[in-house]
Design goal:
Elements (H helix, E strand, L loop, with lengths): L5 E6 L2 H4 L18 H4 L2 H6 L1 H16 L5 H12 L2 E6 L5 H5 L4 E3 L2 E8 L8 H5 L14 E5 L8 H12 L3 E5 L11 H7 L3 E6 L11 E4 L2 H12 L1
Parallel strand pairs: 1-2, 1-6, 2-3, 6-7, 7-8
Antiparallel strand pairs: 4-5
Helix pairs in contact: 5-10, 8-9
The structure holds ligand BJW and zinc ion (ZN).
The site of zinc ion has 8 residues, from loops.
Length: about 230
Amino acid sequence: MKSAKSVVVLTGAGISAESGVPTFRGNEGLWKKFKPEELANFDAFIKNPELVWEWYKYRKQIIAGIQPNPGHYAIVELEKMYEKFAVVTQNVDNLHRRAGSKNVYELHGNIQRNYCIECGKEYPDEIIFSKAEVPRCDACAGLIRPGVVWFGEMLPADQWNASEEAASSADVFFSVGTSAVVYPAASLPYIAKRNGALVVEVNPETTPLTDIADEFLMGKSGEILPELVNALK
Ligand code: BJW
Ligand code: ZN
């Protein structure tokens, strides 16, 4: 870490768990009743937009009421220490930017965005919450959807390309608070490792990545990352 020039931190739902955002999988997971693959896809939305909107409105409300935690702030501190630094997040909660991280790539979109599936017109959350029924576009009557990336959808090309490039040239690559099962995000640590990076995983539980990680720091990111920053300072 002391000699590294380029550091990349990939984050998942676990980094926001200590802020009070439920994770997707596992015992405390949001989707205990529904498999993520069943709900977070376009066909499920078309079949049952009421259910999918109920789920996103619930999460928008949670996210609006919470704050970044020491894990997010430790990543802000790390960014100040390196010439090249990137946060690549699978989270849609905007907490890295709110904490003060500058170079953030959002692979799965942002839950604060909403847009019409027919004409692309964007809508703020106030419009979404002003209607009890499924929100529709005032220009073309198309369904409005959340601005996130569902299964089977392409990731935003600019965010993905920049993340892949950052992973390829990283000296140290962190995988923090992700179950490391959703692709293509889960391929980034492998890309980094193939290009010579030291791969460090931070998670209270093991994942499919643990076996190939060079270091596994077992525990909560809100505790481990601040300790790491202190040790570096
Ligand atoms: C803590 C902690 C603490 C707890 N501190 N840690 C077969 C094989 C391979 C791939 C595929 C396949 N079939 C289909 C695919 C592709 C598919 C995929 O990967 N599927 C696999 C699941 C099998 N991927 C896609 O479809 C992607 N697109 C794509 O591939 O495009 C190309 C394509 C186009 C057309 C056709 C086919 C391919 C898109 C993926 C989009 C994922 N979207 C979601 C929803 C986003 C919107 C929303 O938020 O609602 O993204 S799903 C959900 O999972 C969300 C997350 O970002 C993502 C990852 O979850 P994450 O962050 O890892 O959370 P958890 O809950 O799983 O884990 C939390 C972790 O934290 C745990 O490990 C805990 O232990 C830990 N933790 N407390 C630190 N305090
Ligand atoms: Zn429209």
